[in-house]
Amino acid sequence: MKLTTELQAILDGEKGEVLSKVAKTLVKYGEIFGAEEMVPVTSKYNHLVTSFGLKALGPVYELMDQLIESGNLSTQQFSCDPRPLDKNVPSNFLLDFIFKNFMYSRQDFYEGQLTKLGLKDKNAFTCACYMDEVGNKPEKGDILSWAESSAVVYANSVLGARCNRNSGIIDLMGSVLGYVPKFGLLTDEGRKATWVVEIKTTKKPEAQLLGSAIGMKVMEEVSYIKGLDKWLGTELDDAACTYLKDFGAATASNGAVGLYHIDNLTPEAVESGVALIAEGAKTYVIDDAELERVYREYPVIWKNKDAKPKLCFMGCPHMSLEQLKSWTDKVEAGLKATGKSKVVIPTVFTAAPGVLEAFNKTEYAARLKATGVITSYICPLMYMNNPLAGKMPVITSSNKLRTYTTARYYTDDEILLQITGGAK
Amino acid sequence: MKQFKGRVISPGKIKAEALVSHGGLNTLASFQKALQFGDKKATCGDQNNPDLYGKQMVGKALCLPQTIGSTTGGLVLYCACSMKRQPACLLFSKPIDSLAAAGAVLADVWLDDVTMPVIDSLGDEFLNYVKDGMQISVEDDGIITVE
To answer: Distance (Å) from the C-alpha of residue A275 to the closest C-alpha of chain B?
Structure first.
């Protein structure tokens, strides 16, 4: 890799051993993928994937201490994935004991480290950092050093920023050094689509199901999606952005997608159209039957497949303000139809602290509360990621949560029926 | 006996028994329990991986296509190495993914006393040929002998 004089000096140790190691890490990482140069990180803020003080990650905290003690802090302030704990979320004594004493016993310590390194503010904990209410929304063309998979795919696809699908710690190192290796999705060539996906459904496809189907088919490759603008329109309004947030998270978790283009909708597709399709691209046609096939093939890993759900999580990734409002309407209508006053399964809607704050200022907040739905800033994945919660029959319409935990997936309509007591 | 040639990501010479995953290795799901609850054998905790679930990963030549799952994967692999709960080596049939690459590089740069050779691009034939329990020798130049 060709390095500037400044970066070569850092690599050679002129600014200390720790920063030299940071540079060496990023250079080696880039060389594996054929990077020929390092490029400056240009976004205003970074975003880190590791938000949890998991006891098992001791070596990570030691590494972060090395950065802090040597004065090599982040050159950008950053937001961070959601916190793993929130007392609003239904729990029990044993679960609380495990969370606080075994799993997340380093939470306070770790948040202290994040603050020293450059945490944006005490509420900057969400996977959907690009929401207006959170304020970490990169500009088109910005170079990022992010790692959270759902945020990376959103930033690349919907915002037109440029970021690889990095790992945790690499994200932080990029903003400590201020440079990242240029390869993959940072290059024009790497942003070309090697798959064309044709949507031929008879109704608007479920975002989480469509994303899952495409993710499992294309894995880490870039797709150019035709026919979705028929259902989403050609404007990136709140509804379209919310759809693409959930769709993208499913592509990234069910596969390893970092970028997709939607014909006539996402910025690069609007700008360059089918010129983004690489020569020899493969084709994947999605119709109603294909989505049904994908859905029916999800394994149910509950021990008792007929168990009555004990909890419902919505919001992985975190819900938008638009989603909280529309789901308030849906839950109210669902309860009215079943003649019930409260949801029949404990239900948690998760969103960024800033989004919840904005939601709480609207008249919808009291209405949602009256239905019995709980709102929280928690990370449902982190809540589920332990042996006790893993045994609970939890339902969700998040394909990411389904993929990484024992939670069982249902479509939005099915979830609504279940929580409002309308399911047979 | 058969030999395969791959690309060296982290060099090293080692002999170990093969442990094969035909699906992607979900690093977080596979290692979390072992790191959390002090399992020195690093028993794979990923229920979605029938090839590896319940098997000891420490000291094995882990043969796999790529890693999958959470983008915390690289730091989890780094932690496994730091806590001496890593496989003897990682042998990828496909080009290495960015998460595994991050873990390999972090271990190589930041840990002084850990050797975990990592070889990628060994090809589909490698993963079709190798079976659990076979003896694997890894050379510095990326040549793998399976017997």
So the answer is: 27
